[in-house]
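Encode chain A's predicted structure.
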Amino acid sequence: MIGRNELCPCGSGKKYKKCCLQKNQLMEFTRNKTLYAKGLYNNMENKIYEYSKASSFYNDREECIKKFYISKESNSIIDKLYNTYFMYDFRNDKGNTITNMFIDDNKLTLNKSQRSILSSIIKSNVSVFKIEDIATTKSVIRDYFNDNKIIVEDIDAFRNLKIGESIIGRPVNVQGMNILVDEVTKVSDKNLNVILENVKQLYKTKNKKIKSIKEFVNNNSYIIYKFEQQILLNDESNIINSLDTTVKNTTKAKVNNNSDINIYDALKNNIEEKYLQKGLDLWKEFIKSNKSIKGSENGWAAAIEYYIKKDAGEVITQAQVSEKYEISPRTLGKRYKELKVS
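Encoded structure for chain A:
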């Protein structure tokens, strides 16, 4: 810790108390406020996510997968964006979102703070923003599609960004603070021009009944998410392609290119998020050296979860995991041995 009377580490030659002390205190205060707001948001997000995993939403998930993903490549960041879209934006054949249904089913148990956060989630939308200012405790971003300016106190989100740059993000207001709840993705100038022109063109030609481009983007947020996927999958090295919404994009594809077995859904719907990518990576390595794979998706997914958690040092039994995936411990043991041998 720097003493108040020591020279400021910024190199100004002044004492710390006369230079950066107050600024650092303000930053720490803002950071703590942000962490608290994110904690409240994450708690509510987890509740909606658990609600969205109900078997009654299976067909909705399948339709959403077809609409959202652009690639067969598995990516944990993109999967997180998919979850946000599915929970907040995707509408079923009755026009309902998961979040609205969650509110209806839990309205008697929600407190005032939770209702406020849910209201902010419903009002939020993913968009493309220009960074207009980055200050000590706040940043200002402007939405390219409606020209609205938003003050964001989520200072760490802008740590590697500069004024004038563009991003894709999703601000949500939690207790008076705007935080960015999704991946903040930097957009190059070339990609920005493609996105803006393509969205404007889609708005003009596909949705004549919608009054404003703001409403169009809000109602078709998957378009922005598809552009974001292109950037993430290409590491921002290539200019993204225009989208044609008349053509259905590839569904979320199988993790396994050498087999008809697709363990993705079985694993994703059961294993904790912190282990998901490790599990998918293990499966990819396994199928590289095993051209012919037999057995059920649940059997392999269960074996992967058991393998990952055992390797992580967790105390877990085959009986516990097999019950979760509705298979026999014998089947799990057999698949686990095959994973170990490879």
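Strands lie at 127-134, 139-143, 149-152, 166-169, 171-174, 177-180, 185-187.
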